[in-house]
Specification:
Length: 205
């Protein structure tokens, strides 16, 4: 398998951290794609990812899978241990529920703030919108408070154990640094959780 990814970009990192948590990082060939140099928009890359998305996982039979969550679902099936997406219907539902909440209510909201406010994104977000940036910032900060309240009574994000939901939130918090914001330093319980996730070592490579 080949994984077309962009180092330090959040969606590719979601897959890389997922593989590392499974101890399977060496099972996939990594091919770097520069987003800032717009390599993801080349005609050659669009043959694999028609919507110019990164990451893309290419299977041995040539099948190309985009969307980081879908890629992780495939990898969960291929490498079932350690389980990161739930062992029974209840666990699967709870983990997906929190994973989607984080993605839609925190991760994507922050991305809107970043894309519409950071100078380095001006060539990719044309035109940038201050109104969209402000809306995204407000939503991301609100969700950070909600997550902090949730983690006040939970060791992990979902199903009382480590899962892909923890990986998604960890990446989201780390990515916030590009806007000089570290929610894990502003919120006690989110900070405790973040330090515990860092200690697990799944983010190191």
């Amino acid at each position: 398998m080949k994984l077309y990814q962009s180092p330090k970009a959040p969606n590719p990192d979601r897959v890389v951290f997922f593989l590392r948590a499974k101890g399977k990082l060496d099972a996939v060939e990594m091919i770097d794609v520069s987003i800032m140099e717009q390599e993801h928009k080349t005609a050659e890359y669009r043959k694999l990812s028609p919507y110019a998305q990164v990451p893309t996982l290419v299977l041995d039979d040539g099948t190309a899978i985009t969307e980081s969550r879908a890629i992780c679902t495939y990898l969960e099936g291929v490498f079932p241990e350690p389980n990161l997406m739930g062992r029974d219907p209840k666990e699967k539902a709870l983990i997906e529920m929190w994973d989607r909440r984080i993605e839609l209510m925190f991760f994507i909201q922050f991305a809107g703030w970043f894309r519409n406010a950071h100078p380095m994104m001006a060539p990719l977000e044309v035109p940038q919108s201050p109104e969209a940036a402000a809306k995204g910032e407000k939503a991301a900060r609100t969700m950070a408070k909600r997550l902090d309240a949730h983690l006040a009574t939970h060791e992990f994000v979902a199903a009382d154990r480590f899962s892909i939901a923890d990986i998604t939130l960890y990446i989201g918090c780390g990515f916030c640094r590009v806007m000089k914001w570290e929610p894990q330093k502003e919120h006690e319980h989110l900070g405790r959780w973040y330090d515990a996730m860092t200690a697990r070592g799944f983010a190191k490579g």
